[in-house]
Amino acid sequence: MSAARLDGAPVAAAIRATVREHVARLSELEVTAGVAVVLATDNESTAWYVRAIEREAGLLGIDCMVHDLGQATTGRIAQRIEELNRNPLVHGIILQTPLPDGVEAADLVGLISPAKDIDGANPLSLGRLSVGLPAFAPATARSVMEILEHYRVPLTGQHVTVVGRSAVVGKPLAQLLLGKDATVTTCHSRSANLASYTRRSAVTIVAVGRAGLLTGRHVTPESVVIDVGTTVDGQGNLIGDVDAASVGSTARALTPVPGGVGSVTTALLMLHTSEAALSGSCVSPAGAREGELMAGQW
Q: How many domains would you assign to the chain?
């Protein structure tokens, strides 16, 4: 048996089509959507991700401004975020992690204007998301939901295990899954006997950042597995949290790395940026469903 491949490409393509419609409407208003990435790390996985954002923005006609601050202090990063909040040419702000030693993301993400918080990092955005109010969902968490919807993976009444409890993926993803009436278990580094949870789940989502964490012994032939992890190995290859060989020969379906969640995430960041630009121009995106704008809900 070989797991079905849940490619992100068709999901990302549908999102890009919507972004192009938004960009065309903005062009009529003589507005160019702009996203700023604040970077203060030389982490190779992060560099790979930022390059992907730059490529995506260029492809879709969105200005991407990378602010590489080097080993900056909390104060310097905070100052740059405040400048970007005031800049009318910037519609979306991403604070990229990891940050330098001694600099805590929790001290900075709350400074990002919720109107420009396209990656759902501000606690205000996360709080609104958790109670169903309009807010940008973290793009990686939403990309998982978009993939599951595209491939018509049932969630209502199903047991889903999320491995990882980060504020940017695991926790908001659990909220989004609950909003689809799934029964959600969240596992983490202190969860005993991980396989006892994942093997009884219809869907397992792994978002830890530990290469090869999930293996064939953690899944069954009915498992749908979503791999959110990204790690650069010694040869410069991007690999996920799933041991693709053993899981791919056991599970029913699996997202690839690269080519799965990551491609959808970058497309969603552009979608959120174009939505923010249209909102700032007092124009609602064409075709937005009720409650969808700035909500990450579908």
A: 2
Residues 144 and 248 in one domain: yes
Looking at the domain assignment, is residue 290 inside a domain? no
- Record the tokens describing residue 296, joined without a space: 């990450």
Nearest one of 68, 74, 142 to 294, comparing CA atoms: 142
Distance from C-alpha of 23 to C-alpha of 203, rounded to nearest angstrom: 35
pLDDT digits (tens, 9 = 90+) for 231-255: 878 887 888 999 999 999 999 999 9
Look at residue 257 and tell me if it is in a domain.
yes
- Give the mean model confidence (pLDDT) for residues 38-51: 86
State the residue range of the domain holding 272.
Answer: 19-117+262-278
Same domain, 80 and 111: yes
Task: Evaluate whether residue 44 is within a structural domain.
Answer: yes
Q: Give the end-to-end CA distance of the chain in Å, rounded to a whole number.
A: 33
CB 85 within 8 A of CB 93: yes
Q: Secondary structure of 52-89 in the HEC alphabet?
A: HHHHHHHHHCCEEEEEECCCCCHHHHHHHHHHHHHCCC
- Owner of token pair 């999930």: 214
Token duo for residue 33 = 């959507």
* Cα 214 off chain centre by: 20
